[in-house]
Write a structure and sequence with these properties.
alpha+beta, four-stranded mixed beta sheet
Length: about 425
């Protein structure tokens, strides 16, 4: 700790809850005083209590028969109980949680599995890392430097203009809905890429603020150009060039995962993304009809939306306000997330929309194969009947980390994630 700090701060060893006594670090001495009276080892007692609660919750999910559903729920239970546990307490500062360590390890393992690597390669990597750590020249350098992985970076360009390109008539409702829509768009695109590459969601290293990063095996590089073009086409169709995804990637070796080297690679992908922002639409410009879509006129001189200025899908409301279907849907989204307790995510082919949802934010995201709903209450059996042809359903419990009360035995329903929309719902 810095010399000017009077106290040593740390996180309490407690399960994750939306409670300021849990999610903010406290002085070490305060945590000791708050422990059970008479406890000889307060930290040992805290870990013992945490472990017992974790085991009890894991027992509750034994009824889940499907591996993917079990994996999803266990993942979020691990986040709930190991977010505050250090991954290591020797040779380095305990500033990385066990959850982040487990997630990253799982991402690396999934890449190795998809790459179908030989056991000899793994032995050489482990031997090489050990010898490099000790400062010895390694005969295993070739394995350490072999590019078996990819770091994929995505950045949605045009966010600021999209958010603030609204008139004062729709500012309050529009900002909330537009901000959250961008989060949904970023996550939808990231998960779309994961699904196209057949990778688990643990390989999504980060997603937020219009940016995302994915760890992928090197063997999928040949698929990325086609994926990038498809996403560019979809966004051009939806947003007419206002929003554009810059998608770049670079090779990684096992040796690049070491501290200093990985930081350098993170900087390199940032530089590639910055350069990619200067070459918008180059991937699809030569495709038939794209030149006219990109450079041709967008509007036809009709009635404009009073919020965003668009001419598409504009209707007159009861009070005489002219608003497009997309802006109207974002206002409804803002209301829905303010009172929602559950976030339902459904992945399926050929999403069927109601007539009133045409041109809405739901229509936009359905082009990536995903549908979102926000509800105050849910019944699992009713949810399955409403989506008989679904591929996967995720139920995310909002603002509450006690999510095992909605476990389903259905093999096609995955339940487990918790999210916080407190900041959005309080607007």
């Amino acid at each position: 700790m810095p010399e000017y700090s009077e106290y040593r701060y740390c996180y309490p060893v407690k399960k994750l809850e939306l409670n300021r006594d849990v999610i903010f670090p406290k002085p070490l001495e305060d945590l000791k005083r708050e422990s059970e009276p008479g406890a000889e080892d307060w930290l040992k007692g805290a870990y013992k209590s945490l472990w017992k609660e974790f085991v009890d919750e894991v027992k509750e999910i034994k009824t889940i028969r499907d591996f993917d559903a079990y994996f999803n729920t266990l993942y979020h239970l691990l986040q709930k109980y190991t977010w505050c546990v250090p991954s290591a307490v020797w040779r380095s500062k305990p500033d990385v949680s066990l959850f982040d360590h487990l997630k990253t390890t799982c991402a690396i393992a999934s890449c190795l599995y998809k790459s179908n690597v030989e056991e000899e390669y793994l032995d050489n990597v482990m031997s090489g890392l050990d010898k490099r750590r000790k400062g010895n020249l390694s005969e295993c350098e070739e394995a350490l430097n072999e590019s078996k992985f990819l770091l994929i970076g995505g950045d949605i360009s045009g966010i600021q203009k999209f958010i603030y390109a609204i008139t004062s008539k729709g500012a309050a409702k529009g900002l909330r809905g537009r901000s959250f829509y961008l989060e949904l768009l970023s996550e939808s695109i990231a998960k779309y890429i994961l699904r196209e590459l057949s990778l688990p969601f643990t390989n999504l290293l980060y997603c937020g603020g219009g940016h995302f990063y994915i760890l992928a095996p090197g063997v999928v590089e040949a698929d990325l150009n086609a994926i990038r073009k498809r996403i560019a086409e979809i966004l051009l169709e939806i947003h007419k060039g206002e929003l554009y995804l810059v998608l770049e990637w670079l090779p990684l070796s096992a040796g690049d995962f070491q501290n200093e080297k990985f930081g350098m690679k993170w900087g390199e992908i940032g530089d590639k993304i910055a350069l990619g922002k200067k070459r918008k639409f180059t991937d699809i410009l030569e495709m038939p009809g794209m030149h006219e879509k990109i450079f041709g006129p967008i509007d036809r001189g009709g009635t404009r939306c009073e919020i965003c200025g668009s001419e598409e899908g504009v209707r007159e409301e009861e009070r005489g306000r002219m608003v497009c279907s997309f802006c109207k849907s974002l206002e409804v989204l803002a209301k829905d997330i303010a009172r929602a307790n559950y976030w339902i995510e459904t992945w399926k082919e050929g999403i069927k929309l109601r007539e009133e949802e045409r041109g809405s934010w739901k229509d936009a995201l359905s082009k990536f194969g995903v549908e979102y709903e926000f509800r105050e209450n849910i019944e699992i059996e009713t949810l399955k009947k409403e989506n008989p042809e679904h591929e996967h359903i995720f139920v995310y419990k909002l603002n509450d980390t006690n999510f095992t009360d909605v476990i389903s035995e259905d093999v096609r329903v995955r339940i487990g994630k918790f999210q916080s929309l407190l900041a959005l719902s309080s607007w």
